[in-house]
């Protein structure tokens, strides 16, 4: 079974702060995704990647950067965090463009 | 682009009752339909999925119905039990796209 882990699980920062969310998958999946989950909006795609060094823009990329350093590791960067980025962030992975995505447990980020 | 509406946002039922969650979508080319379950503090897990050539699928107390004419997807939990309490999301994918579009989620509470 696919294993996707995220760290930290909870993070509090201040407006203007610099935050890095980490995601690791250990099933050799090619595709990795970052989503944010907000009440009333479901999951919205921020960025995704189909391999080390690759980055693609999702539906809500403003204010976020991402980097895929290896096949296993995908990072989401908030360089100037704002309160509007307070959310629950999920990382997911999939085989190529497979139908099924495997999700991590989420990181709850609060920007004060 | 594809839009998905999910209802109800909150659903409370008694143990043993059935619970029905509905999603409507806009793109007639939608080819893949899925339901995910999110338990408290955890990521999303795939419950069931169907392709557009399937109208009905049953597995372990869950029934997925697809009405392509009305562009409606439903999940029916028959004989719900407290362990079914979670947030449920539909997610669909158009034939011309790889991206999953998620509904806004339904918080299901099953009372003993």
Description:
The complex is a heterodimer of chains A (112) and B (112). Chain A has 112 residues and is mostly beta strands. Helix content of chain A is 0%, strand content 52%. Chain A has no helices and 11 strands. In chain A, the strands form 2 sheets. In chain A, strands 2, 4, 5, 6, 9, 10 and 11 form a 7-stranded mixed sheet that branches. In chain A, strands 1-3-8-7 form a 4-stranded antiparallel sheet, with no helix packed on it. The model of chain A has no long low-confidence stretch (mean pLDDT 93). Chain B has 112 residues and is mainly beta. Chain B is 0% helix and 59% strand. Chain B has strands spanning 4-7, 10-14, 19-25, 30-38, 44-51, 56-59, 62-67, 72-77, 86-94, 101-102, 106-111. In chain B, strands 2, 4, 5, 9, 10 and 11 form a 6-stranded mixed sheet that branches. Chain B starts with a strand and ends with a strand. The mean pLDDT of chain B is 93. The interface between A and B is medium-sized, with 17 and 22 residues.
Mean pLDDT across all amino acids of chain B:
93
Contiguous helical run count of chain B: 0
Poorly predicted regions of chain A: none
Mean pLDDT over the residues of chain A: 93
Shape of chain A: globular
Q: What's the number of extended β-strand segments of chain B?
A: 11
What's the number of extended β-strand segments of chain A?
11
Taken from the alpha-carbon principal axes, the silhouette of chain B is: globular
Percent of residues in beta strands of chain A: over 45%
Helical residue percent of chain B?
Answer: under 10%
Radius of gyration of chain B: 13 Å
| Oligomeric state of the chains in view | heterodimer
